[in-house]
Amino acid sequence: MKSTKTGIxxxxxxxxxxxxxxxxxxxxxxxxxxxxxxxxxxxGSLKILAEELNPAEDMTPDSPNYNLRxxxxxxxxxxxxxxxxxxxxQKCMQIxxxxxxxxxxxxxxxxxIKDYGYSETIASxxxxxxxxxLLYYLLGKxxxxxxxxxxxxxxxxxVNSLNPELYISYNALGITLMNLKKYSEANTAFSVxxxxxxxxxxxxxxxxxxxxxxxxxQKAKEYIEKAKSxxxxxxxxxxxxxxxxxxxxxxx
Length: 252
Hints:
The protein has about 250 residues and is mainly α. The protein has helices spanning about 1-40, 40-50, 65-80, 80-95, 100-110, 115-125, 135-145, 150-160, 165-180, 185-195, 200-215, 215-230, 235-250. It has 13 helices and no strands.
């Protein structure tokens, strides 16, 4: 029995070695394509990927096609090729049924192009693969856009329970709570977000706004000035700074 187990292990090891030998040139080309993607040469990256991708090997064990298609999807995303983005991500889902990343990225892509219904569908499907905080976050963002604030609140709170370090979720929760007129709770959410991301102009601006509606103009001015120091040309921040200064002067 011992020799049988050893034989199985050796067989598996040999298969792995053979796969590395067979696909080593492809993976080297993948690294070149990835480098071009990072350099924002998306068309050049796609050219390499197209030369290496053999669709007939999609479901072949140890095939590099998942990585090739995943990168191709992101290249097409940058180039605005909607159908190609969807096709590559969907094929990635078929190749690696346990991988949640294609669901996350396709959901975010659909959200970016404002196809909220499709984004919601893909995110919901992805949650059947993995209880991924980013998918709940995306569903919360869609609920926020639809002004379903109570659903958005529940979803962002779910995200925060799963990943207490995801600052974007605390910021989104704060925005939701502001819409619900729960200003003190919004201030708390923004405070957590800024503790996680101290140099974010957006969060600093939101935290300032929450202090403003709570009537704490000194704190509001402190945070809006910090926001301006990181994004001096932002017109929203400039307008809010003007409003806060005006309110502060009115009460003096």
